[in-house]
């Protein structure tokens, strides 16, 4: 007897131990394949294996995969699984929806550190680029030879292009400027002047139909922000925990690059400081140069950024870090105090990504806020709006 679809899903969640709970029925052909794929990945979790929720690899051949690595019978045995990462990737691509595939890939890379997901050329040629894989590539690219790097670059290019396109729209909105009250001869729906149109057409109101017959529509002009020269200095922590912020900092810098009146800098740091401004217009190349990991010297990086400031009251210095300082906290506070005192806007971000979930040293962050720095977490779009607001004053 084969389990109905609802019970089969519970059986997949619970693992082999859930068979009895679900009535002892068997899995369908695709269900057995899904179970085997889940088992290959989550069987690595020793805590789950001890509870019998998921079998560990090599714990038996009852994993739904035949000796050739493909779906097969569920007879017992003691030999190790012959399933490869390529087989597993092909299976999940065929058996699961896209959202589940991305979750499985994320767990494979981040939870179980199955690095051949992003270092095996056979896998890279099959895999669909996504944000999780981009982060994995940046963490492991130092392990790749030239041929694998070329394949990995495909992931970087596709995901970065999508991020740039999305943020570029938000930046255009942030910097497009407010509508003025000056009439315009250009009839664009987004500039429709509702109040003046109603006022000037009230004589054409039809009380029976309760409608105004608009004979003369009016439109407003849209002013451009008057931008004096501003500097936006992005200083990003490139320690391993900040990989999402590194990606979005590169994308943000690329989208701000070339805006009228805005001079953008991008500086990466760990215990050393690297000025990446020359590559800001090519975020793919920039990310391929970033070296994640190492210690953290925020004070040194902020001191370098302070040296870049040309007109203090026309500068925004953005420090993107978890605020776990490996250098001198006292030196960092002195530099931030001096920057704020000279009129520079200092913004400390604990996260810069699409989710903006911060994890940071709150004590140090609060001490910088007490000195006049703005502290928080932002999405790239929110940072663009923050910059636009300051620049457009």
Automatic annotation (TrEMBL):
Region ranges (Disordered): 52-83
Organism superkingdom: Bacteria
Pfam families from the UniProt entry: VWA_CoxE (PF05762)
Coiled coil segments of this chain: none
InterPro entries, sorted: LolB, Uncharacterised_CoxE, VWF_A, vWFA_dom_sf
Domain called VWFA: residue spans: 229-388
Segments of skewed composition (Gly residues): 55-79
The protein's name: VWFA domain-containing protein
């Amino acid at each position: 007897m084969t389990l109905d679809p609802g019970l089969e899903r519970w059986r997949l969640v619970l693992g082999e131990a859930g068979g009895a709970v679900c009535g002892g029925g068997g899995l369908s052909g695709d269900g057995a394949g899904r179970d085997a794929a889940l088992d290959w990945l989550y069987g690595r979790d020793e805590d789950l294996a001890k509870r019998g929720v998921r079998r560990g690899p090599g714990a038996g051949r009852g994993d739904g995969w035949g000796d050739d690595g493909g779906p097969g019978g569920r007879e017992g045995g003691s030999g190790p699984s012959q399933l490869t990462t390529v087989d597993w990737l092909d299976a999940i691509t065929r058996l699961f929806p896209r959202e589940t595939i991305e979750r499985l890939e994320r767990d494979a890379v981040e939870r179980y550190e199955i690095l051949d997901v992003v270092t095996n050329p056979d896998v890279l040629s099959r895999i669909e680029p996504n944000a999780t894989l981009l982060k994995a590539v940046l963490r492991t690219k130092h392990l790749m030879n030239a041929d694998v790097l070329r394949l990995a670059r495909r992931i970087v290019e596709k995901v970065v292009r999508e991020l740039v396109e999305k943020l570029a729209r938000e930046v255009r909105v942030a910097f497009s400027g407010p509508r003025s009250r000056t009439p315009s001869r250009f009839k664009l729906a987004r500039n429709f002047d509702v109040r003046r149109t109603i006022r000037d057409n009230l004589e054409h109101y039809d009380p029976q139909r309760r409608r105004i017959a608009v004979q003369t529509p009016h439109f407003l002009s849209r002013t451009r922000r008057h931008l004096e020269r501003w500097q936006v200095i992005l200083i990003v922590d490139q320690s391993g925990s900040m990989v999402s912020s590194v990606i979005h900092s590169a994308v943000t810098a690329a989208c701000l690059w070339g805006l009228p009146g805005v001079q953008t800098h991008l500086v990466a740091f760990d215990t050393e400081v690297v000025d990446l401004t020359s590559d800001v217009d090519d975020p793919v190349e920039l990310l391929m140069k970033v070296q994640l990991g190492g210690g953290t010297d925020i004070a040194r990086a902020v001191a370098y950024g302070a040296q870049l400031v040309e007109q203090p009251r026309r500068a925004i210095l953005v420090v993107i870090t978890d605020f776990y300082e490996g250098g001198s906290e006292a030196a960092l506070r002195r530099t931030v105090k001096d920057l704020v005192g000279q009129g520079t806007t200092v913004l400390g971000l604990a996260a810069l990504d699409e989710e903006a979930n911060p994890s940071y040293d709150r004590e140090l962050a609060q001490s910088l806020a007490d000195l006049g720095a703005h502290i928080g977490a932002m999405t790239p779009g929110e940072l663009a709006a923050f910059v636009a607001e300051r620049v457009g004053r």
